[in-house]
Specification:
mainly alpha; 13 helices
């Protein structure tokens, strides 16, 4: 007698009812994630007088975006954030890829010491770095400069992404590197010609994550910068006047900050998914 397989999830519901319930639950989860973004976009399109009233009406305007774009400080903050994010990604990958490869392929004292170092740094709470970094940048004369903001970002990325890169290299069969070394390649040559091309999906995924983390970072930008190198995450939080918060301008700036992050995530998602499969 053939066995009848019964569903363990709400067996008292008919199949169509379970599908409907699953679709409603999926829609609710998606709506919960999308609702803050939709509310932010609607607020950015409201006139300033329509932001604070219960009966908001149906009037929409692009005046908030025009006012934001006419502010040189906000435009400069966008450019600073884009430049710091790109440079932090490039410098972080230059170190992280070789660091992850060393942690994956070597088990000597140098590898163990490096592994212990980044492990200790990862155990330290993120916020506890900020105050010492403030005094260090002040004493080195790099406070409120690109260098003073770039170095902490690169250090944090190296500590965090070296672990991920090690996991990616662990998933790559080293036999091709050994074959290359038998054919005359040095270890460094095998790394450049064989290991790095094999790990390109993972490296691309890390590049996307590095850029997004730096673009969205707030604490370093708040403590380690002032008026010379403003960042968009800090400028966005400065729409405070004597009459209160200017929500429409803040929302317009936030929507503009969402665009490059959304595009990077959209075009980089296939690399992230492919990298996670390694």
């Amino acid at each position: 007698m053939p066995m009848v397989k019964r569903s363990e999830f709400l067996p008292w519901l008919p199949p169509m009812g379970r599908k409907t319930l699953f679709a409603l639950a999926l829609f609710g989860i998606c709506f919960a994630f999308a609702f803050p973004v939709l509310w932010l976009i609607l607020t950015s399109l409201r006139p300033e007088s329509g932001v604070y009233y219960v009966h908001r009406g149906t009037e929409f305007t692009l005046g908030s975006f025009a006012e934001v774009l006419s502010d040189d400080r906000i435009v400069g903050a966008f450019l600073n954030s884009a430049l710091i994010s790109t440079l932090a990604t490039v410098f972080s990958l230059l170190v992280t890829v070789s660091s992850g490869y060393m942690l994956s392929r070597f088990t000597g004292p140098a590898s163990r010491i490096w592994f212990g170092t980044i492990y200790v740094f990862r155990c330290v709470p993120y916020i506890s770095w900020v105050l010492p970094l403030y005094f260090v940048t002040q004493s080195w004369g790099i406070y409120d400069t690109y260098t003073g903001l770039l170095l902490p970002h690169v250090a944090v990325h190296i500590c965090f992404f070296s672990w991920l890169m090690k996991g990616f290299f662990d998933g790559i069969d080293p036999s091709m590197e050994y074959a290359a070394m038998i054919d005359g390649c040095t270890r460094w040559g095998a790394f450049i010609r064989v290991a790095v091309p094999s790990a390109l999906p993972a490296i691309s995924a890390l590049a996307v994550l590095c850029w997004l983390f730096t673009w969205n970072e707030f604490l370093f930008a708040l403590i380690l910068t002032g008026n010379r190198v403003p960042m968009i995450t800090v400028v966005m939080a400065q729409f405070v006047t004597e009459m209160g918060l200017r929500w429409n301008l803040m929302a317009a700036t936030a929507v503009m900050a969402l665009v490059p992050a959304f595009l990077i995530a959209l075009f980089g998602q296939k690399y992230v998914i492919r990298g996670l499969r390694i």
